[in-house]
């Protein structure tokens, strides 16, 4: 694909079926692959996979579910709607969230962003051979060049002119012949293993209070209770500032080379979720900034990212239109406070947050 390909990302959700059917796609899919969300919802996502990579991607889909993976990344080719544009090399992230796979698809190009995405993912798998440049080694990864085995060559075989036995002898040959090609194995999806209890939220990245625009299930939050409300209504008050700072960082990461909203790797954190909800618009005034944070150069790195000063003094947009929050005191611990692990990632259309109860 040429340099005119938009460096954007879209959020996608697929089901556990063998075809991995699309359940949700954000609007930026049209910029990257040419399809409108309505063109793909209900259709198999594997239809877009390059034929040479189909078997491996299908098995990867199954392994992701079976192993209950989270924040993993793969580089593969997906078909563009315009046949003249062929297949686009994409970075595809995925996380198992209860009974669906939630993730994103972005245009893959070499550079600092690709390094950042790969270094923050829990696992990276390169499917398309030309994407080997994106395969980065990290601490603890096994060596890509294991030592070569020494062939077992006996002196009599060389003297008599007979062909030397293969390394490992007859036992190894028999073992190799019995070994099945993993790509040819029959893949079954029933019964599925028990998955971790996770909930996925999509937040509006263009609002100060990050309005919840999608909630995948009712495992940790009530979907009807959360939709349309600021995400921070569900963060305990004492953790709000640190969670806001994390999201500010995620927004700064999620900007492409042209300064446009895009993907930016994964961020991980832990905070207390307030499931009942509160009114986060009635925030206390900010303490005086320390001398280490004086100045505005760190807050103006992106035109698309709201500054911390706006977050400190602005009320929520259209507060009268959202459901009236509970007036329970957020400062005293209640049964609704639940420690959660969170995975944050920014994309062109929003911020994806995956929540899981802390074990």
UniProtKB/TrEMBL annotation:
Q: Does the keyword Nucleus apply?
A: yes
Q: Name one GO molecular function term.
A: RNA polymerase II transcription regulatory region sequence-specific DNA binding
Q: Which residues form the signal peptide?
A: none
Gene3D superfamilies for the chain: PAS domain
UniProt cross-references to InterPro entries, sorted A to Z = PAS (IPR000014), PAS-like_dom_sf (IPR035965), PAS_fold_3 (IPR013655)
PROSITE patterns of this UniProt entry? PAS (PS50112)
Give Gene Ontology CC terms. Answer: nucleus
Mark out the compositionally biased spans (Low complexity): 312-333
Places the protein is found: Nucleus
- UniProt-listed PANTHER family: HYPOXIA-INDUCIBLE FACTOR 1 ALPHA, PROTEIN SIMILAR
Q: What is this protein called?
A: PAS domain-containing protein
Q: What species is given as this protein's source?
A: Serpula lacrymans var. lacrymans (strain S7.3) (Dry rot fungus)
